[in-house]
Amino acid sequence: MQSVRARPDRLDVIAEDDRERRLSIEVRPVATNIIRVHIGPGPARPSRLLSPEVPTGAEWALEETASGWAVRTSELRLTIDRDPYRLRLADAAGAERFVEEPNDQDIRGAYHHFPTGHARGLRWLTAALKPQEALFGLGEHFGALDRRGQAFSSWTVDAFGVRSDRAYKNVPLLLSSQGYAVFFDMTAPLYYELGQSSVAAWQVTARADHLRLYLIVGEGVAPLIRGYHQLTGAPAVPPDWSFGFWISRWGYRNRDEVMAVARRMRQERVPCDVIHLDPYWMRFHEGHHGDLVWDELAFPDPRGMLEELKGLGFRVSLWESPYVPLDSEMRAEGERRGFLMKSKSGGGLALVHGFAKPSAAVDFTNPDAVEWFKQKNRQLLEMGVAVIKTDFAEDLPDDAVADDGTPAEELHNLYPLLYQRAVFEATREVNGYGLIWGRSGYAGAQRYPVHWGGDPGCTFADMAASLRGALSWILSGAAFASFDIGGFFGIPTLTDPPSPELYVRWAQMGLLFSHARAHGHTAPREPWAYGEPALSIFRRYAQLRYSLLPYLYSAALRAVDGIPLVRPLVFDCPSDPTTRHVDDEYFLGPDLLVAPMFTPMGSRDVYLPEGGWYDFWSDRRFDGPRWIRYDAGLETLPLFVRAGAVLAMGPDLQFANERSRDPLTFEVYPGPPGTTNFDLADDHRQLRFRLSVDERSFLLSGGPLSYEASIRVHRPGAPPLVGTLGETVRFA
Question: Which of these is catalytic: 101, 295, 455, 667?
Fold first, then answer.
């Protein structure tokens, strides 16, 4: 260490590497719980990932210690050791959270991980791992939720399913059970080695000339996620109807098919809000690219079709990608106006390969190209389309030359974010709400929901992997997620459908998740295609989802405060070490615990965290923390309600805005005596009710009184007690 110099807003450190070369390090407190560290050249380079509202500073003090220097805010202390150089992060009470590891060596003195350093165009950070430490985040990955012992690259690709370490969505955010998070504010390729080759350390390596990272301190998962949102932006909340059911397949080939499915949905009384059209709605398509122009031979009078579907209570989602067919007018116009990615060799277009036909790619670093692409989306939205499925974007050509000069390697991970932002903004400008249905993603993608989990196979193994991927995405800062109910394609050949039993089990999980869409590769995913009892079971869970819409939407509004609608158990129970390894259960909103079945029937082990829990179906009560063995026939999904919960449930609906959610039923699951206040969001109005509870009675008051509302109090081993708004419900 050569010198440390305090500036008003930062600390400038000059260090030496092992070859006595000077190395600049900038330490900048940006919030009381967040410190930015920039190692190497370019600390003033603007970020491509931070939100416009990112915090820029906090009150801090510098003190010299016996071993170096310490930067202190009201919530943390970052110590910079002189010899050897290393960073140590502690909370305000002095408990050490994060520490660099310069001595990860074996008995011979050989390094498992070199200390933090640089060589041959690479830079890396090496940190210590404590014996019981668990690691989470880093995007949508399909292995165990605890990343410890894993290794993979942060390089967005088409994952071709959910079985490998390939990822559609990479987020350079690492969370630790030790109460810290590290966000790498970089788009360059990153490689994570998380205690795989050594149990004592984790390491992140960047192919770049610098490392820029943010260290975040927080007790538990939730404050770490909120710190990340401070940097990259809070999630948007999608419109209430998006929480209804979406039906899709690859794909409806003409208007007659679409209308037949819409009418059958209503005939079968299967609630549904959205019908999605994959690429066949366009003139030019090969399954991976399109020209954003209706094929009016297959879909005559598309505006009329949209109106007809609206009359039946359906909204329409359309597929698109950022890839442009070479034989289309869109390519000719885009190339003429300079809106498509150029190749650094020869000056022609940079082409996307790997599909049936090559494609061009829209250059989203060019503001005029962004506006051009947005206008093509606006035309669709203005005729009545509700939402765009923003597929692909993982395949930016390696030889692409961007309008703003960003090297292709640094643009690769960023490209999906730029694409989805353009479509999200166009949707909000036309329809007044922000919403997409995206596959790829990177840091900041939580601002542009919703994302689904790619192309799983039609197996129980892929179903479980899809859940892990979605929960991993949530632990990477997202608030909403989905997956293809039933699986997308068959294993081992490209044939489907799934078995009726798999379809039912996946539907039970998917219909009690953040967002619910059935989608498949070649075979239908409509529930009547699977016969009885699949149709009846599907209808039952779809109706349950729609009854829960007041509860779900109220819970969704908490996303702006960093509370995702769906989350793994460790999010709510970080001090319970068992929850760090439970990745086949999840919370839905504040009070429902879902434990999907990954077999047609039989039993599974369910972990119930601390507190009281009611079996949703039988009202049997359990006290946690404990494991229980739960037997479930095909018609039953293990579902539990937290003691003390009040579930607001609406009427029977065929689509979300069919009518006002009146009457309301408040399902009360008694916990400790006390008073509960709760708010609901219904038809975009705030409804305020008050539930007064004592040991002998319950009273529901509030309103508005124009709402018909009833209360039902659940009791283990006894029939529920029933009352109405303003009426005291008394125990016998």
Answer: 455
